[in-house]
Amino acid sequence: MNNPEAVIIGLGYIGLPTAALIAEGGTYVHGVDINQNVVDTINRGEIHIVEPSLDTSVSNAVSKGFLKAATTPVETKTYLIVVPTPFKDKHEPDISFVQSATTAILPLLKEGDLYIIESTSPIGTTEKMMTYIYEERPELNGKLHIAYCPERVLPGNVMYELVHNDRVIGGVNEASTEKAVAFYSKYVKGELHKTNARTAEMCKLVENSSRDVQIAFANELSLICDRADINVWELINLANRHPRVNILQPGCGVGGHCIAVDPYFIVADYPMESKIIGTAREVNNYKSFWCAEKVQNARLKFELQHGRKPKIALMGLAFKPDIDDLRESPAKYIVQRVLQNANNEEYYIVEPNIEEHNVFKLTDYKTAYEKADIVVFLVAHKEFKNLPKDSEKMMLDFCGVYK
């Protein structure tokens, strides 16, 4: 492989598609991941995650020599940090992975290089990393281009959206913004919006917090409708006939690496000012607890009516329909909570998008549905929508499979 023109640190759900996209465009990319299995898989031209058309892109890029993976970075002109930013206890953001990735490239940096953070980050992270870099490499002070550019893609459609979605690009100064815009303009067809680093960081957090608040409204409606004996799916459908109303669909909570996490980055730093955002998180977390309690109540009701333990199918583990991603999944939380309170019932755990799980024994969805007395729909996977509605079974539909 020729000298890479870009190093991408973090080859997960965003980093790998980004690396593949850039490499497919004829740019030599050096991808970095701390997981040796991930590195080996990519270097075989294969992928370790489920994402439509990503396998083809990676295979093409690797076979043509434009993409190579390793556990350590090499010298280049452009460095992209695409690592996780989870939260610690009390929902405080953890930027240690961003700092570790930055530490790894510190010895490689040289005048004129472009350093971009794509990881979702608390406000001020880019400036904090700039300070850290210049403290460690004072001879480079003011001589690097440093910017923040968050991803805003939908799992299941990442390869298309990386190209066609607009991007917000914020540098620590105007020169950094322009340099980052010039880099992305080679690969992105969407509009590139220039701003500063703090605004770009906040923009990413606000986008996902907005979704979280809207979902919380739908989930709160579902709680009210359950008490009021109203079909929440019919209600929302009717309310949305109003030309200026667009209520989202309720579910069993909110999951994923973005919407269930990013609002805490705002709440942690601005607790007094973020009342609606904080309350939305509480509502969406409570919905998962409520669903788990509903399953317990259904189990007890069945036992009283039939004088035996029920067979229960828990349908779905992913955080949203038709993907394999279980990060922060409310369905996974519900399954864990239900199993903690199990009392010799027979459980069938279903997730059609993964072959096996290191904790749960998985069952084929048709088998689980057929055998179960109680069917609990946690994720509206397309496979489930083809199952016949069986009036003999007790149904708990938390995600609108049947609506």
Brief overview, please?
The chain is α/β, with parallel strands linked by helices and 403 residues long. 41% of the residues lie in helices and 13% in strands.
What does this structure look like?
The radius of gyration is 23 Å and the shape is globular. The strands form two sheets. It has an eight-stranded mixed sheet with strand order 3-2-1-4-5-6-7-8, with helices on both faces. The protein has helices spanning 15-24, 36-43, 54-63, 96-105, 125-136, 158-164, 174-184, 197-228, 232-239, 262-269, 275-306, 330-340, 365-371, and strands spanning 6-9, 29-32, 67-70, 78-81, 114-117, 145-148, 167-171, 192-196, 311-315, 346-350, 374-377, 394-397. The chain is α/β, with parallel strands linked by helices. It contains 13 helices and twelve strands.
Keywords:
403 residues; alpha/beta; eight-stranded mixed sheet; 12 strands; 41% helix; 13% strand
How many H/I helical runs? 13
* Head-to-tail CA distance between termini: 53 Å
The whole-number mean of residue pLDDT values reads 95
Strand order, largest beta sheet: 3-2-1-4-5-6-7-8
